[in-house]
Amino acid sequence: MKNYHGGHIAIRLALGGCANRPFFRIVAAYNKRARDSKYFEQVGCYDPLPNSHNEKLVGLNIERIKHWIGCGAHVTKPVEKLLGLSGFFPLHPMTITNAERLRKRRALKAITASEEETPGD
Amino acid sequence: MDELVQRLLSKMTGLDLQKVFRPIKQELKPPTYKLMTEKQLAEATRKAIEEAKELLKMPPVLSEREPIDDVLAEDRILEGTETVKYVFTDITYSTPHRERFIIVREPSGVLRKATWEERDWMIQVYFPREGRKLVPPPIFKDENLTTVFREDRHEDVLNLCIAQFEPDSANYIRVHHQTYEDIDKHAKYDHLRSTRHFGGMVWYLVNRKKTDGLLIDMIQRNLMDDATCLINLYHILHPDCQSAKEAKEQEAHGVDLIKVFMKTEAKKVGYIELALQAYQEALASSAAL
């Protein structure tokens, strides 16, 4: 076992899959390791492309996630967002912020579109 | 009471070793021959009977499950960010499938528990079971079921159904009921006689009081014990009917029990009388011989 100075365990997404077909594994690994290299344990999976029923599948091994967080693992932002969406964590503030920003942008676009229409008529 | 019911049902199912151990589709092997003494042969037949009893264990009969409709959280802020549902499944190996958390986050921001069909599908994706497909095969549609029944392959359909669906899902119950109705319509009771589906069929028929065809079939095959078992079961399930009270008063057994039942409850009285007469004539002629 390699000993890292000042490293910590992280629960993060490891990318796999083929060209134009990503697939993430949710993995407990040392922070300093490469993204796809040796990990302690695979704790779930996330498929970013929707399937035939228009769903994105996420599998989470809740018991082992609890164990690793109990051992002091840090959780990266994408995994935090996923866990917030699932209900296991409270909703991540960035998800809410992004949602509000998107709404404001769409509202602005709708207003500018209607303003362009009325002078044009 | 359940023990008694189970015993009656298993007695009616019969133990035809030849049919139970009929060659299933397996890899081809040259047959092996063993030389045994009489004692060893008796041992082997005993073990075969025990194995047959294991194979003939009836699958559970449950009432239809109620649809799940539980909303865990409503976050209307997220409406419009996603175009896709997110399905989160709990993959802990040690939780039973019934208690797994399978949660869906809709694009409208509502966090709800998954419906039964979504649950079955997810559990099959992450924990695949032998004999189950992700999408139920088209054999379970109504048009295809009629074709299968015409070819007399009821027990194959029922075996596939048991492998594919949960015992309390709507599809399982629908397919089973349709199979039993079809068998009752065409009096093909013998197809299921030594399989594990016989008990379920008898339970269904007795609950709906459609036992006449089965009775006639049993009398025609000279299975008097099975006929009395059937009527006993009927009395246990419907203790308020006329034939049950009369049978208790007269304490009838065997052929008399059948006659009592026939007079009070049966709809096809003529057929049952004819069959009984034929059976008694056959008995008389064989006794005379």
UniProtKB/TrEMBL annotation, chain A:
SUPFAM superfamilies: Ribosomal protein S16
One GO molecular-function entry: structural constituent of ribosome
InterPro entries per record: Ribosomal_bS16, Ribosomal_bS16_dom_sf
GO cellular component: a single term: mitochondrial inner membrane
Annotated GO biological process: mitochondrial translation
Protein localization: Mitochondrion
Keywords annotated in UniProt: Mitochondrion, Ribonucleoprotein, Ribosomal protein
PANTHER family assigned: 30S RIBOSOMAL PROTEIN S16, SMALL RIBOSOMAL SUBUNIT PROTEIN BS16M
Family designation: Belongs to the bacterial ribosomal protein bS16 family.
Name of the protein this chain belongs to: Small ribosomal subunit protein bS16m
Species: Platysternon megacephalum
Lineage: Eukaryota, Metazoa, Chordata, Craniata, Vertebrata
TrEMBL record, chain B:
GO MF, one example: structural constituent of ribosome
Listed InterPro entries: Ribosomal_mS22
Record's keyword terms, sorted: Ribonucleoprotein, Ribosomal protein
Membrane spanning stretches: none
GO cellular component: mitochondrial small ribosomal subunit
rRNA processing as UniProt keyword: no
Name of the protein in its database record: 28S ribosomal protein S22, mitochondrial
The organism's place on the tree of life at top rank: Eukaryota
